Amino acid sequence: MHPPPLSALGLLLLLLPLPPEAAKKPTPCTLCQQLVDKFIQGMADTVKKNFGGGNTAWEEKSLSKYEFSEIRLLEILEGLCESSDFECNRLLEEHEGLLEAWWLQLQKQAPDLFEWFCVETLKFCCSPGTYGPDCRACPGGSQRPCSGNGHCDGAGSRQGDGACQCHTGYSGALCADCLDGYFSVLRNDTHSVCRVCHESCKTCTGPTERDCTECETGWAHQQDACVDVDECIAEPAPCDENQYCENVPSSYSCEDCDSTCVGCTGKGPGKCKECIPGYAKDESGQCSDIDECSHPEGPCLRENENCYNTPGSFVCVCPEGYEETDGACVPTAGGETEGEKLMQPPPHEDL
Fold first, then answer.
1. Which of 63, 186, 197, 219 lies 20 to 30 Å from 263 when distance is taken between CA atoms?
2. Would you list the DSSP string of 263-302?
3. Helix 28-45 and helix 86-101: axis angle, to 10°?
4. Using CA atoms, how far apart are residues 290 and 310, in angstroms rounded to an integer?
5. The pLDDT of residue 305 is above 50
């Protein structure tokens, strides 16, 4: 047996699912932020641990000692990482000394743990509104990146190129311009606000159909406003013969006629131009089934034959006790006809 070629093995490896550890790892900044968040939560959880009720003066004195104590620090550190969280435990093991230094010496002069630990000391992150290895200010400034209308690529991290990724309706390097279909309601050195145009406008200067500078496809300028074009009145008709046209804003749809119609002007059997064979328009104008069996002459020509109406048609069948022979309904040999059954007396009941 020959081993599979290397190309086949390579393809097989590509198709195999990646193990969990091969999935995209969080960035150092994300890990640092998570560790700080857990540390701050630990501070909240231990703020008055083991105290409450009793001697108030003693508690205040004890709490002042506990607030910045190594005992409280150890309680916080012990709850930071789950045993299965490898990245959290690795980061804590590498930088536990820094957290201890901040807790015991720098907490008052550098109260923002994230800024001191992740931004200034480890240099894993940037302050909000800055990006890249040197933590440069995002376009528009760190206080209001991208005019407040977008996301600065890499903001808060040592990554990204700082390019603005604009929110819906905005465009430009600073996300200060309005896209087609939006109009400006406010613009100054620091702020730009865009609002969506009326649905009839491709471009506009305000919110109504009269503020359009260009109509959207399916709309046309009439009397200083963009109005919907009714495609259904166009010649030739836009729909097939057995369909009707339904106008909708900026477009139209072709819907199938009722099954009883031959051509129609709208929905239902009351909108038929003509009726299919077996149907005719009734007093209300709807296409209704013709009951051929109700005609005095009757459509069934053979003697003793019964007529049964069906939607759009009818069927002729021999009744019970008869059989079709040479195009006629004749009594079945040895059988009883329906008429003979009706003439028989009721069965005698024993007393």
1. 219
2. EESSSSGGGEEEEPTTEEE-TTS-EEE--GGGSSS-S--S
3. 60
4. 9
5. yes
| Residue 113 identity | L
Task: Indicate the helix (H) or strand (E) that contains 186.
Answer: strand 182-187
Task: Tell me the pLDDT tens digit for each residue of 18-27.
Answer: 554 445 788 9
CB 275 within 8 A of CB 287: yes
d(CA 134, CA 123): 9
Inter-helix orientation angle 86-101/70-78, to 10°? 170
Which of 25, 26, 27, 24 has its CA nearest to residue 158?
27
**Do the Cβ atoms of 125 and 157 come closer than 8 Å?**
yes
Q: What is the DSSP letter of 217?
A: T
Cα of first residue to Cα of last residue in the chain, in angstroms, is 92
Distance CA 99, CA 315 (A): 94
Report d(CA 218, CA 252) in Å as an integer.
9
User: How much is the CA Rg of the chain, to the nearest whole Å?
Assistant: 43
Burial of 258 from C-beta contacts in 10 A (0-12 / 13-18 / 19+)? buried
Q: Which amino acid does the sequence have at 178?
A: C
Share of residues in the chain with pLDDT > 70 (%):
84
CA pair distance 291, 119, nearest whole angstrom: 88
Please provide residue 5's backbone torsions phi and psi, each rounded to the nearest 5 degrees. Answer: -60, 155
Contacts of 295 (CB under 8 A, 6+ apart): none
Mind listing the pLDDT tens digit for each residue in 123-159? 999 999 999 999 999 999 999 999 999 999 999 999 9
The C-alpha atoms of residue 172 and residue 187 are separated, in whole angstroms, by 14
Written as six digits, the tokens of 76 are 């916080």
